[in-house]
Structure formats: C-alpha cells, structure tokens
C-alpha cells in the first residue's frame, strides 16, 4: 500500500467524520448561542437552563438526519470494502 493511498483513505475518512459530527453538533451550538444571549439579556445565571434545549436539539437533529447519517456511513464502508483488492494488490 502506497503512502498516497493511505493518505487518500485517511482524508476521506476524516472528511466523512467531520461532516457527520458537524450535522449533529452545529444545531446544538446555535441553540446554545441563542439561549446564552437570552440569559445575558435577562440576567439569568442558571447553568442548567441551556442544557435541555441543546439536548433536545441534538436529539431532534439525530432523528431528522439519522437516515442520511447511516446512508453516508454505509456508502463510505462500501467504498472501503471495494478498495480492498487495490490496497492489498
């Protein structure tokens, strides 16, 4: 296996992970930002207030994007399995 092939596989795997994680984390970050602005505007200093909206948003994102996440992971895995002969040979 050449170093270039390894780098290409690693790059593709890292890209897939970043895209999948971003799809779940970014909505929670946006909701957390909105709640933080609300807390700053109303002078509410409760740490647990932002936890529930972020948790619900993350769960909702996983429910809505679950099909896409699984399909993306399966396509990546199928590509990896298809590349086995080229990597070995």
UniProtKB/TrEMBL annotation:
State its location(s).
Cell membrane; Bacterial flagellum basal body
Extract one GO cellular component term from the record: plasma membrane
User: Where do transmembrane segments lie in this chain?
Assistant: 12-39, 51-70
Q: Name one GO biological process term.
A: protein secretion
Tell me the NCBIfam families matching this sequence. fliQ
The family classification in the record reads:
Belongs to the FliQ/MopD/SpaQ family.
Indicate what this protein is called per its UniProt record. Answer: Flagellar biosynthetic protein FliQ
Q: Please report the organism this UniProt entry assigns to the protein.
A: Paraferrimonas sedimenticola
- This protein's gene is called fliQ
């Amino acid at each position: 296996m050449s170093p270039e092939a390894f780098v290409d596989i690693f790059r593709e795997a890292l890209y897939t992970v970043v895209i999948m994680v971003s799809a779940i984390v970014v909505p929670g970050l946006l909701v957390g930002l909105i709640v933080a602005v609300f807390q700053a505007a109303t002078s509410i200093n409760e740490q647990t207030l932002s936890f529930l909206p972020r948790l619900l948003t993350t769960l909702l994102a996983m429910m809505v994007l679950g099909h896409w996440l699984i399909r993306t992971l399966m396509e990546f895995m199928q590509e990896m399995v298809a590349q086995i002969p080229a990597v070995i040979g």
